[in-house]
Amino acid sequence: MDISVVIPLLNEEESLSELCNWIEKVMTANAFSYELILIDDGSKDNSWKIIETLSSKNPNIKGIKFRRNYGKSAALNVAFEKADGDVIITMDADLQDSPDEIPDLYKMITLDGNDLVSGWKKKRYDPISKTLPTKLFNWATRKVSGINNLHDFNCGLKAYKKDVIKNIEVYGEMHRFIPVIAKWAGFTKIEEKEVQHYERKYGKTKFGFERFINGFLDLLSITFVSRFGKRPMHLFGLLGTLSFLFGGGLSFLLISEKVYKSFYSIPTRDVTDKPLFYLALVAMIIGTQLFLTGFLGELISRNSVNRNHYLIEKLT
């Protein structure tokens, strides 16, 4: 099978028929063999009934229904497990992403040899309350991840080589960072394609301002897990050692000063009367706690079932 199109959705009953017909038209015109996986993420409208009707008319259309809203990451992760296409293309269900982009995305994976191609909605039809935080979010993600050639990490229109989606896990709200997850899994051929963005035709957006706050928190989380998930002592042990050495050194200086002035009968305050002593004590306690955190993290990591999971591209 050439392509698997994966579309998570929530309360998009107005757009589903039009979107599926559009996709079918593109696939037929380019002679692609395909499957269309629609994931109903706990919709309260008639989305699932429409999916059932569309599936009965077109065997290429498959549906997955969640009992409640689990989020976009969960929907993508389940669909990725089911997808059989050589190239997997994700898009949103609100008709703001154009299926006409599919042939070019497919070629960038199969002919150009990219692992992942991310869409870039250079010209957006969204209010400034959405575009401005998005720019800040994308800037921060580029700096942290080192993927400097992507302008729009959160664009729903993306294309993946099959190996990519079969070797990564998307959870929580990590769908925003799939390029980052893919890069840290060893898939470094990541490119960008400028894509057409349309105004929302039906309904209203399902995302609020809180997604940007959650996005930055998720960025910190994935950065830590990806870089130190298998070696937590490298982070906590280092910070703990530095903190303990700082507190110990400060305590040594205070005690040395007390001994020196006492030896030469120079008036001085007791060490315990100085605020710096308590600062040093706190630093030593924090250092010990950080070191123990790293040690416990190492024990957990070494007992993990996937502690030696590696991605092997070829075996001869």
Task: Provide a descriptive summary of the structure in words.
With 316 residues, the protein is an alpha/beta fold. The chain has 2 domains: 3-228, Spore Coat Polysaccharide Biosynthesis Protein SpsA, Chain A; 233-302. It contains 10 helices and 7 strands. The protein has helices at residues 16-29, 47-57, 72-82, 102-110, 128-145, 162-166, 178-184, 210-228, 233-263, 275-302, and strands at 3-9, 34-40, 61-65, 87-90, 116-120, 158-161, 190-194. It has a 7-stranded mixed sheet with strand order 3-2-1-4-6-5-7, with helices on both faces. Strand 2 (34-40), helix 2 (47-57) and strand 3 form a beta-alpha-beta unit. Helix 5 runs parallel beside helix 8 (210-228) and helix 9 runs antiparallel to helix 10 (275-302). It is elongated and about 95 Å long.
SSE arrangement, N to C: EHEHEHEHEHEHHEHHH
Percent of sequence in beta strands? 5-15%
- What order do the strands of the largest sheet run in, or round the barrel if closed? 3-2-1-4-6-5-7
Quaternary structure type: single chain
Name the overall outline. Answer: elongated
Broad structural category: alpha/beta
CATH class of the largest domain: Alpha Beta
**Uncertain residue segments:** 307-312
Number of helices: 10
Helix content: 40-55%
What about the largest sheet?
7 strands, mixed
Domains counted in the coordinates: how many?
Answer: 2
Query: Which CATH architecture of the largest domain would you pick?
Result: Alpha-Beta Complex
